[in-house]
UniProtKB/TrEMBL annotation, chains A, B:
InterPro entries: DenD, Epimerase_deHydtase, NAD(P)-bd_dom_sf
Coiled-coil segments on the chain, per record: none
SUPFAM superfamilies named among the record's database cross-references: NAD(P)-binding Rossmann-fold domains
Keywords on record: Carbohydrate metabolism, NADP
Limits of the NAD-dependent epimerase/dehydratase domain: 3-209
Species this protein is from: Pararhizobium capsulatum DSM 1112
Protein name: Nucleoside-diphosphate-sugar epimerase
Gene3D superfamilies the record matches: NAD(P)-binding Rossmann-like Domain (3.40.50.720), UDP-galactose 4-epimerase, domain 1 (3.90.25.10)
Amino acid sequence: MHILVVGAAGMIGGKLLDRIAGQLDVLGEPIEALTIVDVIEPIPPAALSDIANCGQVDLVVPGAAETLIAARPDVIFHLAAVVSGEAESDFDKGYRVNMDGTRALFEAIRKEGQKAPYVPRLVFASSVAVFGAPFPERIGDEFFTTPLTSYGTQKAIAELLLADYSRRGIFDGIGIRLPTICIRPGAPNKAASSFFSNILREPLVGKEAILPVDVNVRHWFASPRSAVGFFVHAARLDLSLLGTRRNLMMPGLCAMVGEQLAALERVAGARATALIRRQPDPVVQKIVSGWPSDFDTERARALGFAAETSFDDIIRIHIEDELDGMFGG
Amino acid sequence: MHILVVGAAGMIGGKLLDRIAGQLDVLGEPIEALTIVDVIEPIPPAALSDIANCGQVDLVVPGAAETLIAARPDVIFHLAAVVSGEAESDFDKGYRVNMDGTRALFEAIRKEGQKAPYVPRLVFASSVAVFGAPFPERIGDEFFTTPLTSYGTQKAIAELLLADYSRRGIFDGIGIRLPTICIRPGAPNKAASSFFSNILREPLVGKEAILPVDVNVRHWFASPRSAVGFFVHAARLDLSLLGTRRNLMMPGLCAMVGEQLAALERVAGARATALIRRQPDPVVQKIVSGWPSDFDTERARALGFAAETSFDDIIRIHIEDELDGMFGG
């Protein structure tokens, strides 16, 4: 089995590779070849260095996607994207990477299939950004996509292409809309959503964190481990169960910031929560208020996708996966 | 005021030009320049020949859209499209014209606006094909777009682009999803929806027509006159009323084939309906059953869009506009 991961240098890509490294038949059959590419050359886990073919690839460069697809990978994970903020500030780059790059990949598969039958599995990382306010209290799977960012627009377009190419039998595709991943490992970054992870990750290692919003702000979360689980499940699932509606919201946990803090205190004690400094930021509060916070994911759950049901679990997973089971709060 | 009509050689484009010819200030201000283009050179109504600049233009030819937009039209009607059947049978052509052509037009406007401020009104002809079965009994304006054709996919992508370009202030756009236009003038064609018009148009001039489906088939209709009215209204409407949700379903009449026939008999007598020959076609019946038939268009109505409320009116409009007020049944 040959696996291609496009966008392998990112956080989810790296964790997906770690998961494959830990269990070479995680996708059903043993993986014999692995191609991992990104705009910077990704580094494979040591256990995969024998089978991994790594490359620095920009999908919109003519011929780049064709070269990747010429090796006829059986499963393709498409995680590559310019993130929300950059797609908004750099119009051309966002459309070039998120729309044209995705289409170039899809077209390369179509062209390869015209030479000899070839219908790979394709798993696409989509986003809640396909939705735009105002929202109903819970967003159902039939709610329309009216993105309020260029990033969300590009993801919604990629979803439409994915559904049409799948309907035509060009590939067997699924688009999974990821919740906000929490607790994101690594250093705090400038994303408006960064604090959702910071307020848990930093106190767990004895560091201060800033909370810029009210404790009653609601959001939709899943752990990095669940996110990898979504991709693995999507790669193995019988997609005929999806019919023609190939894009769906992944399960997650709807929680208020106050619930995050209560869970932190239960797991790590009051000295952890004491490290959180409230410093209201109206700009962040406003951005976050415009995001969807609760979803009806009955469809994904019925198909076997699963995520955490308590923030205690999300914190424990972080302690297990990132802190070797220990925390220094 | 300078008007650009892209796709002006089609039925709706022609009727829109007739409407403008009949009232030069129909869009609010007198029209001083009119550019009309299509893949075949359109012929303007005689009354407009002094101000009309006609051209054979393919938007995806490099520079073609830029040349059109360099004249900085105030209002742009974008009606050009490869139709549903052809977009399905010719994958490349459908995407090239309906997706890349539309994007080329939008990009030309963006590039022109980078030279000096320029934010034209853009009215885009979208379609009920953005929706895909299964449907609720009535499709509301928040129902999701899961097209089951490449044509519908391309229209849905164009809608997303239109909303994003409008949100960014590149143009002031509106996408109007047209009902099935009935009674279409001209000869019967091979479209699966053709019979909806044939069974009225042909008997009105004493000719036979074939009815390939059950009389209880429901569909969603508006007259050509209403369609032109939608475009004119969309060109004049204060689009800030739409907020960021720039694409909407136009009003129409939900009617069964049986109601069409009853209206024909009321308007033209039993000798008209006697000309209809029932010849069930399971293929057509199946295609038509997969189409949406009823919509909640409260939003469009509140914005002032209006259509017929009885099939008697639809037939009378055809008699007035196409048969000089007389019918030969």
